[in-house]
Write a structure and sequence with these properties.
The complex is a heterodimer.
Chain A (H helix, E strand, L loop, with lengths): L1 H17 L14 H10 L5 E5 L7 H16 L6 E6 L11 E6 L3 H12 L5 E6 L12 H7 L4 E5 L8 H13 L2 E4 L2 H11 L6 E3 L12 H8 L6 E5 L8 H14 L4 E5 L4 H7 L2 H12 L6 E4 L5 H10 L2 E4 L10 H8 L3 E4 L3 H6 L6 E2 L5 H13 L1 H17 L2 H15 L11 H12 L2
Parallel strand pairs in A: 1-2, 1-4, 2-3, 4-5, 5-6, 6-7, 8-9, 8-11, 9-10, 11-12, 12-13
Chain B lengths: L4 E8 L2 E10 L4 H13 L4 E12 L1 H16 L3 E5 L3 H10 L6 E3 L2 H7 L3
Parallel strand pairs in B: 2-3, 3-4, 4-5
Antiparallel strand pairs in B: 1-2
Helix pairs in contact in B: 1-2
Classes of the chains: A alpha/beta, B alpha/beta.
């Protein structure tokens, strides 16, 4: 029985590498274990720790962390990664098992303990996601307590790079740049700002695109049938809804779109951001619904007030003819939703925030002024009216999206970690499994 | 879903060369897997996978190649990769699969490597 359990476990590990390709008769039989052992010996191992928010927490960075760690794990099937989740006092048992430790956001000592836990583990490198709001202290400065104590190479992915930061915000990024081994940004403009505005050495900054799901192109018409909206032009926006999304301008653009495309639909997909809901309830969404009512758009604007599963989201995106991000913050340096739309090969219209300006260059989309429903409707109509332009835009977007597929982004991160993390000549610290179990138990109170 | 992998099989010095064009990923790798299974079932034990026109490969694609290697190894054969682009070589090197597969830029060398 013990032998059978061992084989079953090995099959599980192997299937992570083989994924769907081995689901049937490729499974290891006991006589194949020589190959398994050979692979375990020769494939590269790298145990990484991820420090960030993590699902079921609802925020873009939590999703990013899950997607990145999952993508990297598929290439490192014999490694033991774990996550240190940053949250406010929630029970660690709410998280999946990959989360072995929790940093209590408002407790500075918790950051120190997390670093000590990493230092005493077999982890070779740390991937830290940075956004001011996810860490405690003024402007999230407690993150520095973790980095100060850390004795492993660290790669910080910056989800916000402010063009005009406050003094403390600037200090935090500069300190991260000084103490960490590499900073990752997702567009060239991010690197330019880090070098020119923050004084971070250029050789410490890597550009790795925001990952996107692996989606193969499918005709919008096919998916529209499954959603019951056959033949209707579809415009959409998605994400955790907050005032910065500028959804009201998307709604106000609809009358101009309907003049030329009377059946057009605008889908606003996603629930209200939990932080916004905590602070102001559903007041923003109510304002949006009022605009819909005032403009008589009830049949042309549809809200889906839920946190959508990836599959649902991809379906809506694939059914979309024009994706729009009418966002309001010029400084926004990354947008996961826009990245996903590119990954699905969509024609896109956006306001010119920094991320959109860069990723939509070269004909991958159209830019319109901030707070301009007229320009927005004009650009959407231009795409809906001209199949050639639309096809060109979709093809260019898809090509960009393939390069940014998570499986490619994972290789970029692994490349960075392999360069930064020396292979240990002797075992590091305690046995990882023991220390993870101990820490998980210790943090559940 | 649209399958973005084209495949052609030809023979060089009696060894089948599977030319791939496109992406080898979770959506397309079954096509490659079936081709290798068919070749082995037809009695082939030495196979070259031509990857000069492969843009990207993911873990499912790598798994398919390892599965193919396992199949031909059972027949005391071998599997070589030819025309690997810098991106494919990078993936092989980062994962460690460059220690598992014989990877060649040149097809002639790949074929020759499988000759007894």
């Amino acid at each position: 029985m013990a032998s059978k359990r061992k084989v079953t476990k090995q099959v599980e590990v192997e299937s992570r590498l083989f994924a769907k390709a081995s689901a049937s008769d490729d499974e290891w039989e006991p006589e194949d274990l020589n190959m398994f052992r050979f692979l375990r010996r020769v494939l590269n191992h790298i145990d990484l720790a991820y420090v960030a928010t993590y699902p079921p927490q609802e925020c873009g960075i939590a999703t990013f962390t899950r997607d990145l760690s999952t993508a990297i794990s598929k290439y490192t099937p014999f490694s033991n990664p774990f996550v240190i989740a940053v949250g406010e006092g929630a029970d660690i048992e709410q998280f999946p098992k990959i989360v072995k430790f929790q940093i209590t956001k408002s407790d500075p000592q918790s950051y120190v303990r997390a670093a000590e836990m990493v230092n005493n583990s077999a982890v070779r490198g740390v991937s830290l996601q940075h956004e001011y709001g996810i860490f405690g202290g003024l402007d999230g400065e407690y993150v520095l307590k973790f980095v100060e104590k850390l004795e492993r190479p660290s790669v910080v992915t910056l989800h916000t790079v402010l063009f005009n930061p406050g003094p403390n915000q600037k200090r935090i990024v500069q300190e991260l740049g000084r103490m960490c081994d590499a900073l990752v940004v997702m567009v060239k403009m991010g690197k330019e700002m880090l070098v020119n505005n923050y004084g971070v050495p250029a050789n410490k900054v890597a550009i790795i695109p925001h990952g996107v799901p692996n989606v193969h192109r499918v005709s919008a018409a096919t998916i529209k049938k499954t959603l019951g909206i056959s033949d209707r032009p579809v415009v959409s926006s998605f994400g955790l809804i907050n005032r910065g999304k500028g959804i009201e301008y998307g709604i106000q653009a609809m009358p101009g779109i309907l003049k030329k495309h009377p059946d057009a639909m605008y889908f606003v997909l996603g629930e209200t951001h939990p932080g916004v809901r905590h602070n102001e309830g559903e007041s923003y969404r109510k304002e949006l619904l009022q605009i819909v009512a005032d403009l008589g758009l009830e049949k042309n604007v549809r809200f889906n007030n839920r946190y959508l599963k990836l599959e649902e989201l991809i379906n809506y995106l694939c059914a979309t003819d024009v994706y729009i991000t009418p966002y309001l913050n010029r400084d926004q340096i990354v947008s996961g939703t826009l990245a996903y739309a590119l990954g699905c090969g969509k024609a896109i219209v956006s306001t010119p925030y920094l991320y959109a300006e860069e990723v939509l260059s070269g004909g991958r989309g159209l830019l319109v002024d901030f707070r301009s429903p007229d320009q927005l409707s004009g650009a959407v109509n231009r795409i809906l009216d001209d199949a050639v332009i639309r096809e060109q835009m979709e093809t260019k977007a898809y090509k960009y999206g393939r390069r940014a597929a998570w499986f490619n982004v994972a290789i970029d991160y692994l490349d960075l970690f392999h360069r930064l993390c020396p292979r240990p000549k002797v075992a590091l610290g305690k046995d990882l499994k023991v220390s993870q179990a101990e820490s998980r138990k210790g943090q559940s109170s | 879903m649209e399958a973005d992998l084209d495949m052609k099989i030809r023979k060089v010095d009696d060894i089948p060369v599977v030319d791939l064009a496109g992406d080898v990923d979770a959506y397309t790798c079954l096509k490659l897997r079936e081709a290798i299974v068919d070749l082995v079932n037809e009695g082939e034990s030495r196979v070259v996978i031509g990857m000069s026109n492969v843009n990207y490969i993911d873990s499912s694609g790598l798994g398919t190649l390892v599965g193919g290697l396992r199949r031909v190894s059972e027949k005391n054969g071998g599997l070589a990769i030819s025309g690997a682009t810098p991106q494919i070589k990078k993936v092989m090197s980062i994962t460690g699969l460059n220690k598992v597969f014989r990877v060649f830029e040149d097809e002639v060398k790949a074929v020759r490597s499988l000759k007894p």
